[in-house]
Amino acid sequence: MDEATARHWDELYRGRERYWSGRPNPHLVDVAGALPPGTALDLGCGEGGDTVWLARQGWRVTAVDVSTAALERSAAAVAAAGMAALVDFQRHDLARTFPTGVFDLVSAQFLQSPLEFPRAEVLRAAARAVAPGGRLLVVEHGAVPPWGNAAHHHTRFPTPQETLAVLDLDPDGWHVERLDVPQRQATGPDGQTGTLVDHLVLVRRR
């Protein structure tokens, strides 16, 4: 566990009463809502919006985060929803350790960091954790939001095709179901509204 990484995310979550909306990520709902529930791995579970939603649909969820503060909030949200029996919380610094086992759905929602982060290695580990017949869903920011810091506008975001290439999947063992650049309307931290661009990769292990 890298303590500087853990401290960064703990300070972020403890800096305000609620950091995220509490709602599940819409692309996860779109994808998982059409699937029969099974086992799911929620990488970077944050405050538990996705974990709660998955459990309510009947998924058995392993929810992972590096931040103790995030895990505490996520556990509270799961308990309030009456879903604690369906969720296993694990603390991992994904740059160093990864949950064991295989899952019907591995969800990596906006697993992006301002800190040094071995993205390629983590995404490949996520693919290895997919059970036969299961799916990996990777959703990332595709552009800086309209209300983003001007300094961030020089950031380059990998395309879905580049992310697929990073996964280095055996084409005989995987089927690509979606490579999308969906857009959605969202509200910024100070009430601003704007269009967000996402990058989405959905692959299924044969």
Automatic annotation (TrEMBL):
Keywords: Methyltransferase, Transferase. One of its GO terms (molecular function) is methyltransferase activity. InterPro entries: Methyltransf_25, Methyltransf_Superfamily, SAM-dependent_MTases_sf. Residues 41-134 form the Methyltransferase domain. SUPFAM superfamilies: S-adenosyl-L-methionine-dependent methyltransferases. The keyword Protein transport does not apply. Coiled coil: none annotated. The keyword Methyltransferase applies. One of its GO terms (biological process) is methylation. This is Methyltransferase domain-containing protein. It comes from Micromonospora humidisoli.
